[in-house]
Design a protein that fits this description.
By secondary structure, the protein is an alpha/beta fold. The chain has one domain: SGNH hydrolase (Rossmann fold). Helix content is 45%, strand content 15%. The protein has a 6-stranded mixed β-sheet, sandwiched between helices. Helix 7 links the parallel strand 5 and strand 6. It is globular. The protein starts with a helix and ends with a helix.
Length: 241
Amino acid sequence: MISRAVALAPILLVQAVRVRRTTPRLPGAAGPVAGVVAGDGPPVRLAVLGESTVDGVGAATHAEGLTGRLAEELARDGRAVAWQALGKTGANARVVREELVPLLAPADLVVIALGVNDTIELRSAASYRRDLLDLVVALRRRVGRVPVVLAGVPPMGWFPSLPRPLRDFLGTRSAALDAAATRLASLPGVAHVPMPAAMLDPATFAEDRFHPGPEGYRRWAGQLADVSRRLLNDTFFRQKR
């Protein structure tokens, strides 16, 4: 694998530069980065941390992005959900820990969506796992022993904006990082939710063919909701009885 990557390095570099030059630069979502979905009782406090997908790139507002869609899904059973989106385009796991965790408000559930930038930066699986662990430790030091959901690293081998062989190379790297993240699910109160490649229908992407569009965020939120709800029911609501 390494020898093949070395042999393909000139092609991969040319393709990476071309993709960077030709891919439309979409802004992050407009509007408030916090809100409330109405419901019964005191609101569950949801925080989502991560890269451009949490910044809402590909959605007009955060209500249409990953955080707002997930809040809507969690509110389907009648509970109120107060949400906050802490995302930074271009951020890797280290940047999120250093720059975004200090902005984190009190939360009952934290969802982390990372991995694409760590993949592009060619972080090793071991380094990514260590950075994620440091992130979980840091956020729990700030807001307490809250449940944490690790959203799976998107399978970049399915990104329509990426040509081959660059797509295949980054697909392999993103899968390795996601496998490393899976190991953190052994920690108490931490769950990992892989993103199935079948969810990445080209019609769900934004116009840059790299980020999710509103439909992509809706599907992703729906996939994360069941595990998020289970963690909340196992911790937050049990403590409130």
